[in-house]
Protein backbone atom coordinates (compact mmCIF):
# COMPACT_ATOMS: atom_id res chain seq x y z
CA UNK A 1 0.00 0.00 0.00
CA UNK A 2 1.39 3.38 -0.94
CA UNK A 3 1.68 5.99 1.84
CA UNK A 4 -0.75 8.22 -0.05
CA UNK A 5 -3.28 5.41 -0.27
CA UNK A 6 -2.91 4.65 3.40
CA UNK A 7 -3.59 8.17 4.61
CA UNK A 8 -5.95 9.69 2.12
CA UNK A 9 -7.33 7.30 -0.38
CA UNK A 10 -9.55 4.91 1.57
CA UNK A 11 -13.30 5.23 1.21
CA UNK A 12 -13.83 5.25 5.00
CA UNK A 13 -11.35 8.07 5.44
CA UNK A 14 -12.85 10.22 2.68
CA UNK A 15 -16.40 9.52 3.85
CA UNK A 16 -15.61 10.44 7.43
CA UNK A 17 -13.74 13.58 6.34
CA UNK A 18 -16.60 14.83 4.17
CA UNK A 19 -19.24 13.89 6.78
CA UNK A 20 -17.32 15.68 9.54
CA UNK A 21 -16.68 18.76 7.39
CA UNK A 22 -20.30 19.20 6.32
CA UNK A 23 -21.91 18.53 9.73
CA UNK A 24 -19.33 20.68 11.49
CA UNK A 25 -20.10 23.68 9.27
CA UNK A 26 -23.84 23.19 9.83
CA UNK A 27 -23.26 22.76 13.59
CA UNK A 28 -21.18 25.97 13.77
CA UNK A 29 -23.85 27.88 11.85
CA UNK A 30 -26.57 26.55 14.16
CA UNK A 31 -24.76 27.15 17.45
CA UNK A 32 -23.81 30.74 16.63
CA UNK A 33 -26.62 31.98 14.39
CA UNK A 34 -29.62 29.66 14.49
CA UNK A 35 -29.94 28.83 18.20
CA UNK A 36 -31.71 31.53 20.23
CA UNK A 37 -29.90 33.61 22.82
CA UNK A 38 -30.33 32.28 26.34
CA UNK A 39 -32.39 34.83 28.27
CA UNK A 40 -30.56 34.25 31.57
CA UNK A 41 -26.98 33.44 30.61
CA UNK A 42 -26.61 35.38 27.35
CA UNK A 43 -24.09 34.38 24.70
CA UNK A 44 -21.97 32.42 27.18
CA UNK A 45 -24.56 29.65 27.10
CA UNK A 46 -23.51 28.82 23.52
CA UNK A 47 -20.35 27.11 24.81
CA UNK A 48 -22.73 24.37 25.93
CA UNK A 49 -23.07 23.23 22.28
CA UNK A 50 -19.32 22.52 22.32
CA UNK A 51 -18.92 21.44 25.93
CA UNK A 52 -21.55 18.71 26.04
CA UNK A 53 -20.53 16.97 22.76
CA UNK A 54 -16.88 17.12 23.87
CA UNK A 55 -17.71 15.51 27.20
CA UNK A 56 -19.66 12.82 25.35
CA UNK A 57 -16.67 12.19 23.05
CA UNK A 58 -14.30 11.94 26.03
CA UNK A 59 -16.45 9.30 27.70
CA UNK A 60 -16.99 7.45 24.41
CA UNK A 61 -13.22 7.48 23.81
CA UNK A 62 -12.42 6.02 27.23
CA UNK A 63 -15.16 3.44 26.86
CA UNK A 64 -13.52 2.33 23.60
CA UNK A 65 -10.15 2.22 25.40
CA UNK A 66 -11.76 0.02 28.07
CA UNK A 67 -13.28 -2.44 25.60
CA UNK A 68 -10.17 -2.54 23.39
CA UNK A 69 -7.94 -3.05 26.46
CA UNK A 70 -9.95 -6.07 27.60
CA UNK A 71 -9.90 -7.41 24.03
CA UNK A 72 -6.13 -6.91 23.89
CA UNK A 73 -5.50 -8.77 27.15
CA UNK A 74 -7.69 -11.64 25.98
CA UNK A 75 -6.71 -11.88 22.29
CA UNK A 76 -3.16 -10.41 22.36
CA UNK A 77 -3.71 -8.90 18.94
CA UNK A 78 -1.75 -5.68 18.39
CA UNK A 79 -4.68 -4.26 16.42
CA UNK A 80 -6.67 -3.89 19.68
CA UNK A 81 -3.88 -1.95 21.30
CA UNK A 82 -3.69 0.35 18.28
CA UNK A 83 -7.40 1.08 18.71
CA UNK A 84 -6.96 1.65 22.45
CA UNK A 85 -4.01 4.02 22.18
CA UNK A 86 -5.57 5.99 19.30
CA UNK A 87 -8.81 6.41 21.15
CA UNK A 88 -7.07 7.29 24.43
CA UNK A 89 -5.11 10.06 22.79
CA UNK A 90 -8.20 11.65 21.25
CA UNK A 91 -10.01 11.16 24.58
CA UNK A 92 -7.27 12.94 26.52
CA UNK A 93 -7.39 15.91 24.13
CA UNK A 94 -11.17 16.15 24.45
CA UNK A 95 -11.05 15.84 28.24
CA UNK A 96 -8.67 18.81 28.26
CA UNK A 97 -11.07 20.75 26.04
CA UNK A 98 -14.05 19.85 28.26
CA UNK A 99 -12.23 21.22 31.31
CA UNK A 100 -11.22 24.41 29.46
CA UNK A 101 -14.65 25.12 27.94
CA UNK A 102 -16.29 24.36 31.29
CA UNK A 103 -14.00 26.80 33.10
CA UNK A 104 -14.70 29.50 30.51
CA UNK A 105 -18.41 29.04 31.13
CA UNK A 106 -18.01 28.79 34.91
CA UNK A 107 -16.19 32.10 35.28
CA UNK A 108 -19.12 34.37 34.23
CA UNK A 109 -21.93 32.07 35.46
CA UNK A 110 -20.58 30.68 38.76
CA UNK A 111 -18.10 33.50 39.28
CA UNK A 112 -15.19 31.05 39.45
CA UNK A 113 -13.12 29.02 37.01
CA UNK A 114 -13.08 25.96 39.17
CA UNK A 115 -15.33 24.38 41.75
CA UNK A 116 -14.64 21.07 43.56
CA UNK A 117 -17.91 19.64 42.41
CA UNK A 118 -18.41 15.92 41.67
CA UNK A 119 -18.49 16.18 37.90
CA UNK A 120 -15.54 18.56 37.67
CA UNK A 121 -13.40 16.60 40.08
CA UNK A 122 -14.20 13.33 38.31
CA UNK A 123 -13.21 14.83 34.97
CA UNK A 124 -9.96 16.16 36.38
CA UNK A 125 -9.05 12.82 37.92
CA UNK A 126 -9.98 11.11 34.67
CA UNK A 127 -7.52 13.42 32.93
CA UNK A 128 -4.77 12.40 35.37
CA UNK A 129 -5.50 8.69 34.97
CA UNK A 130 -5.14 8.83 31.19
CA UNK A 131 -2.05 10.97 31.52
CA UNK A 132 -0.66 8.06 33.56
CA UNK A 133 -1.81 5.76 30.74
CA UNK A 134 0.51 7.56 28.31
CA UNK A 135 3.32 7.94 30.83
CA UNK A 136 3.52 4.22 31.51
CA UNK A 137 3.60 3.59 27.76
CA UNK A 138 6.40 6.08 27.34
CA UNK A 139 8.51 4.71 30.19
CA UNK A 140 8.51 1.05 29.14
CA UNK A 141 10.97 0.04 26.42
CA UNK A 142 9.48 -3.39 25.72
CA UNK A 143 6.53 -2.78 23.38
CA UNK A 144 4.55 -5.86 24.30
CA UNK A 145 4.82 -5.10 28.01
CA UNK A 146 3.87 -1.45 27.43
CA UNK A 147 0.71 -2.61 25.67
CA UNK A 148 -0.17 -4.99 28.50
CA UNK A 149 0.39 -2.46 31.28
CA UNK A 150 -1.45 0.27 29.41
CA UNK A 151 -4.37 -2.11 28.98
CA UNK A 152 -4.44 -2.70 32.75
CA UNK A 153 -4.53 1.07 33.36
CA UNK A 154 -7.20 1.48 30.66
CA UNK A 155 -9.41 -1.09 32.38
CA UNK A 156 -8.94 0.05 35.98
CA UNK A 157 -9.19 3.70 34.95
CA UNK A 158 -12.55 3.27 33.30
CA UNK A 159 -14.06 1.18 36.09
CA UNK A 160 -12.83 3.87 38.46
CA UNK A 161 -14.85 6.65 36.81
CA UNK A 162 -18.27 5.91 38.35
CA UNK A 163 -16.59 5.11 41.68
CA UNK A 164 -14.75 8.43 41.79
CA UNK A 165 -17.93 10.20 40.79
CA UNK A 166 -19.92 8.53 43.54
CA UNK A 167 -17.32 9.21 46.22
CA UNK A 168 -16.98 12.89 45.32
CA UNK A 169 -20.73 13.35 45.04
CA UNK A 170 -21.09 13.32 48.81
CA UNK A 171 -20.01 16.91 48.63
CA UNK A 172 -22.57 19.42 47.48
CA UNK A 173 -22.70 19.48 43.71
CA UNK A 174 -22.79 22.69 41.70
CA UNK A 175 -22.84 21.36 38.14
CA UNK A 176 -26.17 21.94 36.38
CA UNK A 177 -28.36 18.87 36.59
CA UNK A 178 -28.98 17.09 33.29
CA UNK A 179 -31.62 19.15 31.51
CA UNK A 180 -31.81 17.18 28.29
CA UNK A 181 -32.78 13.82 29.73
CA UNK A 182 -34.93 14.87 32.67
CA UNK A 183 -38.43 13.48 32.99
CA UNK A 184 -41.24 15.39 31.30
CA UNK A 185 -39.07 16.26 28.32
CA UNK A 186 -36.10 18.57 28.02
CA UNK A 187 -36.47 22.07 29.45
CA UNK A 188 -35.13 23.75 26.32
CA UNK A 189 -36.68 25.18 23.17
CA UNK A 190 -36.68 22.83 20.18
CA UNK A 191 -34.17 24.97 18.29
CA UNK A 192 -31.61 24.41 21.07
CA UNK A 193 -32.22 20.66 20.95
CA UNK A 194 -31.72 20.61 17.17
CA UNK A 195 -28.49 22.58 17.50
CA UNK A 196 -27.23 20.25 20.19
CA UNK A 197 -28.14 17.15 18.18
CA UNK A 198 -26.33 18.37 15.07
CA UNK A 199 -23.32 19.33 17.17
CA UNK A 200 -23.30 15.88 18.78
CA UNK A 201 -23.41 14.24 15.37
CA UNK A 202 -20.63 16.49 14.03
CA UNK A 203 -18.38 15.76 16.99
CA UNK A 204 -19.06 12.02 16.87
CA UNK A 205 -18.09 11.91 13.19
CA UNK A 206 -15.06 14.08 13.97
CA UNK A 207 -14.05 11.66 16.73
CA UNK A 208 -14.23 8.63 14.46
CA UNK A 209 -12.32 10.50 11.78
CA UNK A 210 -9.54 11.38 14.23
CA UNK A 211 -9.34 7.86 15.67
CA UNK A 212 -9.30 6.38 12.18
CA UNK A 213 -6.43 8.62 11.08
CA UNK A 214 -4.57 8.07 14.33
CA UNK A 215 -4.89 4.31 13.91
CA UNK A 216 -3.30 4.48 10.46
CA UNK A 217 -0.41 6.40 11.96
CA UNK A 218 -0.04 3.90 14.82
CA UNK A 219 -0.12 0.98 12.38
CA UNK A 220 2.57 2.63 10.29
CA UNK A 221 4.66 3.24 13.44
CA UNK A 222 4.37 -0.39 14.49
CA UNK A 223 5.29 -1.62 11.02
CA UNK A 224 8.25 0.72 10.95
CA UNK A 225 9.38 -0.60 14.34
CA UNK A 226 9.05 -4.15 12.99
CA UNK A 227 11.13 -3.32 9.94
CA UNK A 228 13.91 -1.63 11.86
CA UNK A 229 13.97 -4.56 14.28
CA UNK A 230 14.11 -7.04 11.41
CA UNK A 231 16.84 -5.01 9.75
CA UNK A 232 18.88 -4.85 12.92
CA UNK A 233 18.49 -8.62 13.27
CA UNK A 234 19.51 -9.21 9.67
CA UNK A 235 22.52 -6.97 10.11
CA UNK A 236 23.57 -8.80 13.25
CA UNK A 237 23.13 -12.14 11.46
CA UNK A 238 25.19 -10.93 8.54
CA UNK A 239 27.96 -9.81 10.87
CA UNK A 240 27.98 -13.17 12.64
CA UNK A 241 28.05 -15.07 9.35
CA UNK A 242 30.87 -12.90 8.14
CA UNK A 243 32.85 -13.55 11.29
CA UNK A 244 32.29 -17.30 10.98
CA UNK A 245 33.28 -17.21 7.33
CA UNK A 246 36.42 -15.23 8.14
CA UNK A 247 37.34 -17.66 10.86
CA UNK A 248 36.82 -20.60 8.52
CA UNK A 249 38.89 -18.92 5.80
CA UNK A 250 41.76 -18.27 8.20
CA UNK A 251 41.66 -21.88 9.31
CA UNK A 252 41.71 -23.21 5.76
CA UNK A 253 44.62 -20.95 4.70
CA UNK A 254 46.52 -22.05 7.78
CA UNK A 255 45.82 -25.68 6.87
CA UNK A 256 47.21 -25.07 3.35
CA UNK A 257 50.42 -23.46 4.58
CA UNK A 258 50.92 -26.23 7.11
CA UNK B 1 -0.89 -27.45 50.09
CA UNK B 2 -3.98 -25.38 50.59
CA UNK B 3 -4.23 -21.90 49.07
CA UNK B 4 -4.04 -20.29 52.50
CA UNK B 5 -0.74 -22.06 53.18
CA UNK B 6 0.66 -20.83 49.88
CA UNK B 7 -0.28 -17.23 50.73
CA UNK B 8 1.13 -17.56 54.24
CA UNK B 9 4.38 -19.02 52.91
CA UNK B 10 4.88 -15.91 50.77
CA UNK B 11 4.00 -13.63 53.69
CA UNK B 12 6.40 -15.56 55.92
CA UNK B 13 9.20 -15.13 53.37
CA UNK B 14 8.60 -11.36 53.25
CA UNK B 15 8.40 -11.01 57.02
CA UNK B 16 11.57 -13.01 57.52
CA UNK B 17 13.43 -10.89 54.96
CA UNK B 18 12.22 -7.76 56.70
CA UNK B 19 13.13 -8.96 60.18
CA UNK B 20 16.64 -9.75 58.97
CA UNK B 21 17.26 -6.68 56.82
CA UNK B 22 15.00 -4.08 58.55
CA UNK B 23 14.99 -2.06 55.35
CA UNK B 24 11.32 -1.21 55.03
CA UNK B 25 9.41 -0.61 58.24
CA UNK B 26 11.97 1.57 60.01
CA UNK B 27 12.30 3.86 57.00
CA UNK B 28 8.54 4.09 56.54
CA UNK B 29 8.05 4.79 60.24
CA UNK B 30 10.56 7.60 60.46
CA UNK B 31 9.11 9.05 57.28
CA UNK B 32 5.51 9.01 58.55
CA UNK B 33 6.50 10.57 61.89
CA UNK B 34 8.43 13.33 60.13
CA UNK B 35 5.48 14.01 57.84
CA UNK B 36 3.22 14.52 60.84
CA UNK B 37 5.72 16.81 62.52
CA UNK B 38 6.07 18.81 59.27
CA UNK B 39 2.30 19.11 59.00
CA UNK B 40 2.25 20.65 62.44
CA UNK B 41 4.12 23.60 60.94
CA UNK B 42 2.13 23.67 57.70
CA UNK B 43 -1.30 23.76 59.39
CA UNK B 44 -2.51 24.90 62.75
CA UNK B 45 -3.02 21.55 64.44
CA UNK B 46 -3.63 22.93 67.92
CA UNK B 47 -7.01 24.65 67.55
CA UNK B 48 -10.51 23.28 68.01
CA UNK B 49 -10.70 22.42 64.30
CA UNK B 50 -7.63 20.20 64.45
CA UNK B 51 -9.46 16.89 63.95
CA UNK B 52 -10.20 17.32 60.18
CA UNK B 53 -6.71 18.61 59.37
CA UNK B 54 -5.24 15.99 61.68
CA UNK B 55 -7.05 13.19 59.89
CA UNK B 56 -5.80 14.55 56.58
CA UNK B 57 -2.23 14.89 57.85
CA UNK B 58 -2.34 11.36 59.23
CA UNK B 59 -3.45 9.88 55.92
CA UNK B 60 -1.03 11.89 53.85
CA UNK B 61 1.70 10.52 56.11
CA UNK B 62 0.42 6.94 55.75
CA UNK B 63 -0.04 7.15 51.98
CA UNK B 64 3.41 8.62 51.41
CA UNK B 65 4.96 6.08 53.74
CA UNK B 66 3.09 3.33 51.89
CA UNK B 67 4.39 4.58 48.55
CA UNK B 68 7.88 4.51 49.94
CA UNK B 69 7.51 1.00 51.32
CA UNK B 70 5.70 -0.45 48.30
CA UNK B 71 8.29 0.92 45.91
CA UNK B 72 11.19 -0.21 48.05
CA UNK B 73 9.77 -3.71 48.57
CA UNK B 74 9.51 -4.35 44.85
CA UNK B 75 12.88 -2.75 44.16
CA UNK B 76 14.51 -5.10 46.68
CA UNK B 77 12.87 -8.13 45.09
CA UNK B 78 13.80 -7.03 41.57
CA UNK B 79 17.40 -6.16 42.44
CA UNK B 80 18.08 -9.53 43.99
CA UNK B 81 16.10 -11.38 41.33
CA UNK B 82 13.95 -13.06 43.96
CA UNK B 83 10.74 -11.90 42.30
CA UNK B 84 11.56 -13.97 39.22
CA UNK B 85 12.12 -16.90 41.54
CA UNK B 86 8.75 -16.29 43.14
CA UNK B 87 7.07 -16.28 39.73
CA UNK B 88 8.64 -19.66 38.96
CA UNK B 89 6.90 -21.21 41.96
CA UNK B 90 4.11 -23.40 40.62
CA UNK B 91 1.23 -21.68 42.37
CA UNK B 92 -1.61 -19.64 40.96
CA UNK B 93 -0.43 -16.07 40.31
CA UNK B 94 -3.45 -14.80 42.24
CA UNK B 95 -1.98 -16.41 45.37
CA UNK B 96 1.28 -14.55 44.81
CA UNK B 97 -0.71 -11.30 44.60
CA UNK B 98 -2.58 -12.04 47.82
CA UNK B 99 0.66 -13.00 49.58
CA UNK B 100 2.43 -9.81 48.54
CA UNK B 101 -0.68 -7.80 49.44
CA UNK B 102 -0.90 -9.30 52.91
CA UNK B 103 2.80 -8.64 53.48
CA UNK B 104 2.38 -5.01 52.47
CA UNK B 105 -0.69 -4.63 54.70
CA UNK B 106 1.29 -5.98 57.66
CA UNK B 107 4.18 -3.56 57.06
CA UNK B 108 1.91 -0.53 56.72
CA UNK B 109 -0.14 -1.57 59.74
CA UNK B 110 3.03 -1.89 61.81
CA UNK B 111 3.93 1.68 60.88
CA UNK B 112 0.42 2.86 61.77
CA UNK B 113 0.39 1.13 65.13
CA UNK B 114 3.46 3.10 66.18
CA UNK B 115 2.50 6.38 64.53
CA UNK B 116 -1.06 6.54 65.90
CA UNK B 117 -0.23 6.84 69.64
CA UNK B 118 2.42 9.47 68.86
CA UNK B 119 -0.06 11.34 66.68
CA UNK B 120 -2.72 11.15 69.42
CA UNK B 121 -0.31 12.44 72.05
CA UNK B 122 1.13 15.26 69.91
CA UNK B 123 -2.24 16.64 68.84
CA UNK B 124 -4.33 15.59 71.81
CA UNK B 125 -6.88 13.66 69.76
CA UNK B 126 -8.92 10.65 70.96
CA UNK B 127 -7.21 7.93 68.90
CA UNK B 128 -7.94 4.88 71.04
CA UNK B 129 -11.25 3.92 69.48
CA UNK B 130 -12.06 0.55 67.93
CA UNK B 131 -13.71 2.19 64.92
CA UNK B 132 -10.52 4.09 64.11
CA UNK B 133 -8.69 0.82 63.72
CA UNK B 134 -11.43 -0.58 61.49
CA UNK B 135 -11.10 2.50 59.27
CA UNK B 136 -7.30 2.24 59.31
CA UNK B 137 -7.43 -1.39 58.29
CA UNK B 138 -9.92 -0.83 55.45
CA UNK B 139 -8.01 2.19 54.18
CA UNK B 140 -4.73 0.32 54.28
CA UNK B 141 -6.28 -2.64 52.46
CA UNK B 142 -7.47 -0.37 49.65
CA UNK B 143 -4.17 1.48 49.29
CA UNK B 144 -2.11 -1.71 49.49
CA UNK B 145 -4.49 -3.57 47.15
CA UNK B 146 -3.93 -1.13 44.31
CA UNK B 147 -0.40 -0.30 45.45
CA UNK B 148 0.81 -3.90 45.26
CA UNK B 149 -0.34 -4.14 41.65
CA UNK B 150 0.93 -0.72 40.57
CA UNK B 151 4.28 -1.01 42.37
CA UNK B 152 5.06 -4.17 40.42
CA UNK B 153 4.03 -2.44 37.19
CA UNK B 154 6.02 0.71 38.01
CA UNK B 155 9.11 -1.34 38.88
CA UNK B 156 9.62 -2.41 35.28
CA UNK B 157 9.43 1.11 33.89
CA UNK B 158 12.34 3.49 33.44
CA UNK B 159 10.94 5.93 36.02
CA UNK B 160 9.95 3.65 38.91
CA UNK B 161 9.68 6.26 41.64
CA UNK B 162 7.61 8.59 39.47
CA UNK B 163 5.24 6.03 37.98
CA UNK B 164 3.95 4.57 41.25
CA UNK B 165 2.33 7.79 42.60
CA UNK B 166 1.23 8.83 39.11
CA UNK B 167 -0.72 5.58 38.75
CA UNK B 168 -1.80 5.12 42.36
CA UNK B 169 -2.99 8.59 43.44
CA UNK B 170 -5.78 9.23 40.93
CA UNK B 171 -7.06 5.65 40.93
CA UNK B 172 -7.00 5.33 44.72
CA UNK B 173 -8.80 8.65 45.22
CA UNK B 174 -12.14 7.09 46.29
CA UNK B 175 -10.34 5.15 49.05
CA UNK B 176 -8.51 8.29 50.18
CA UNK B 177 -11.70 10.38 50.26
CA UNK B 178 -13.68 7.88 52.27
CA UNK B 179 -10.86 7.04 54.71
CA UNK B 180 -10.10 10.67 55.48
CA UNK B 181 -13.80 11.41 55.96
CA UNK B 182 -14.33 8.38 58.18
CA UNK B 183 -11.21 9.18 60.23
CA UNK B 184 -12.42 12.75 60.74
CA UNK B 185 -15.83 11.50 61.89
CA UNK B 186 -14.23 9.10 64.37
CA UNK B 187 -11.92 11.77 65.77
CA UNK B 188 -14.73 14.30 66.17
CA UNK B 189 -17.01 11.63 67.62
CA UNK B 190 -19.77 12.15 65.04
CA UNK B 191 -20.76 8.55 64.60
CA UNK B 192 -24.18 8.95 62.94
CA UNK B 193 -22.92 9.07 59.32
CA UNK B 194 -19.73 7.10 60.03
CA UNK B 195 -21.15 3.73 59.02
CA UNK B 196 -22.06 5.04 55.56
CA UNK B 197 -18.44 5.95 54.92
CA UNK B 198 -17.15 2.70 56.36
CA UNK B 199 -19.52 0.70 54.16
CA UNK B 200 -18.52 2.75 51.14
CA UNK B 201 -14.87 2.15 51.95
CA UNK B 202 -15.43 -1.59 52.28
CA UNK B 203 -17.22 -1.59 48.92
CA UNK B 204 -14.34 0.28 47.23
CA UNK B 205 -11.86 -2.18 48.73
CA UNK B 206 -13.86 -5.10 47.41
CA UNK B 207 -14.01 -3.62 43.89
CA UNK B 208 -10.32 -2.67 43.72
CA UNK B 209 -9.08 -5.95 45.18
CA UNK B 210 -11.20 -7.94 42.73
CA UNK B 211 -9.91 -6.03 39.70
CA UNK B 212 -6.30 -6.15 40.88
CA UNK B 213 -6.59 -9.89 41.59
CA UNK B 214 -8.00 -10.50 38.11
CA UNK B 215 -5.43 -8.50 36.16
CA UNK B 216 -2.35 -9.42 38.25
CA UNK B 217 -1.82 -12.56 36.18
CA UNK B 218 -1.47 -10.42 33.03
CA UNK B 219 0.98 -8.03 34.69
CA UNK B 220 3.54 -10.55 35.91
CA UNK B 221 3.45 -13.02 33.05
CA UNK B 222 7.04 -12.51 31.95
Describe the structure.
The complex is a heterodimer of chains A (258) and B (222). Chain A has helices at 3-9, 11-34, 48-75, 78-110, 118-138, 143-168, 190-257. Chain A is mainly α. Chain A has one domain. In chain A, helix 3 (48-75) packs across helix 6. Chain A is elongated. The termini of chain A are far apart. The mean pLDDT of chain A is 86. Chain B contains 9 helices and no strands. Chain B has helices at 3-21, 25-42, 50-79, 82-88, 93-123, 130-155, 160-171, 173-187, 194-219. Chain B is globular and about 55 Å long. The A-B interface holds A 73, 125, 128-129, 131-132, 135-136, 139-141, 145, 148-149, 151-153, 155-157, 159-160, 163-164, 166-168, 170 and B 146, 149, 153-154, 156-159, 162-163, 166-167, 169-171, 173-174, 177-178, 181, 200, 204, 207, 211-212, 215, 218-219, 221-222.
Gist of the model:
The complex is a heterodimer of chains A (258) and B (222). Chain A is mainly alpha-helical and 258 residues long.
Tally of helical segments of chain B = 9
The helix content of chain A is over 70%
- Rough shape of chain A? elongated
Which series of helices and strands of chain A comes N to C? Answer: HHHHHHH
Whole-angstrom Rg of chain A: 26 Å
* Helix vs. strand class of chain A: mainly alpha
How are the secondary structure elements laid out?
The complex is a heterodimer of chains A (258) and B (222).
Chain A: H1 3-9, H2 11-34, H3 48-75, H4 78-110, H5 118-138, H6 143-168, H7 190-257
Chain B: H1 3-21, H2 25-42, H3 50-79, H4 82-88, H5 93-123, H6 130-155, H7 160-171, H8 173-187, H9 194-219
Helix pairs in contact in B: 1-5, 2-3, 2-5, 3-5, 3-6, 3-8, 5-6, 5-9, 6-7, 6-8, 6-9, 8-9
Fill in the keyword field for this structure:
heterodimer, A: 258 residues, B: 222 residues, mainly alpha, 0% strand, globular
Amino acid sequence: MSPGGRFGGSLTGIGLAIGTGVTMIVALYMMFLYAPQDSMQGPVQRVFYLHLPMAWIAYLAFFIVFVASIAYLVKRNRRWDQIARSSAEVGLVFTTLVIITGSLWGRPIWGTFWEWDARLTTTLILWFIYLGYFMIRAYISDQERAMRYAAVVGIIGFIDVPIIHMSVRWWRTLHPEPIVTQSGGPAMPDSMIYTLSVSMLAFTLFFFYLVYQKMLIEQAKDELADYSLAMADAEADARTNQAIQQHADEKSTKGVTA
Amino acid sequence: MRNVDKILAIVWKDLLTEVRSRELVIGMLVFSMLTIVTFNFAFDLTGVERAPSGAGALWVAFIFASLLGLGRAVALERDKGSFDGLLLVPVDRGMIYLGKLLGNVIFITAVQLVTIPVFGALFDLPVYQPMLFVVLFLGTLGIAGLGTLFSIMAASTRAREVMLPVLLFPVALPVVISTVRATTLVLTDRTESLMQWVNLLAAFDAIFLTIAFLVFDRVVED
